[in-house]
Amino acid sequence: MKKLLLLSILCVSNVVISADIKVYKPDTAWFTSKQSSMLSIANNLLLRHYNKKINDKEFVSELLKCSLKNNFWCSGRLGDWLLEKKEYSDAFYLLTQANDNLHDSFSFSLGKMYLEGIGVLQNEEEALLYFKKAAKAEVDLTGVRKYAAYNIGVIYTQKELGKKNNNIANITKAYAWFKVSKALGYDAEIEVNEVLKEYLASRKGLLKADKLATQICSTIPNCQ
């Protein structure tokens, strides 16, 4: 097949500032009024820090106090902050704690850590696992589902780079996940997927890949 294009993987921060962040209300049963209240506390701290109403030290201190009260949104926000500051050990602990208690809401950051081998041993399969969780998470507070899906496509593509005999299963998965990322709103020009499409069509595998994309999309909220 044609040489696959090497794509850089998008590992965006799991912290996003939005005017609507304080009123985020996902349509999922576990996100109760109590969860909404705890999320508002965490996001108010985030906005106060972003608007320079509190400094870094105060921000971390307030998030820590909040985390110690079992507000796992604060734990996740603090974990993301520490990840940005390269405090990897504490970041991993807090992100894992938050993710386990908030239905995979911080899986993207954990996927990034495993993909890049920061704070943990680099593990592509663990990265795939967490990116898949991020893509399918019920709560997409920071809009990373589409990036998680894209990253999965890149990882499966990279598995086949430089091979003479390509594994059609990996190519099928890569194509499907790229298609899912587009359905989720990632509008980047993914030239490599045209190469994958051509390869699959030449081997009568395109229909199967399209069906896989549809199947995956059916398990992800707001995937059309």
Task: Reconstruct the topology from this structure.
Layout: H1 33-50, H2 56-67, H3 72-84, H4 88-101, H5 107-116, H6 124-136, H7 145-158, H8 168-183, H9 191-202, H10 206-217
Signal peptide: 1-18
Keywords: Signal
Pfam family, one: Sel1
Total number of beta strands: 0
Largest sheet: none
Radius of gyration: 19 Å
Helix content: 55-70%
SSE succession: HHHHHHHHHH
How would you state the average pLDDT, rounded?
87
Report on this model:
This protein is an all-alpha fold and 224 residues long. 60% of the residues lie in helices and 0% in strands. It is elongated and about 60 Å long. Residues 2-24 have low confidence and may be disordered. The protein is built from ten helices and no strands. Among the domains are: 33-102; 145-217, no CATH class. The longest helix has 18 residues, at 33-50. Helix 2 packs antiparallel against helix 3 and helix 8 packs across helix 10. The chain has helices at 33-50, 56-67, 72-84, 88-101, 107-116, 124-136, 145-158, 168-183, 191-202, 206-217. The two termini are 30 Å apart.
Question: Short summary of the structure?
Answer:
With 224 residues, the chain is mainly alpha-helical.
List its traits.
0% strand; 60% helix; single chain; mainly alpha; disordered N terminus; 224 residues; 10 helices; elongated
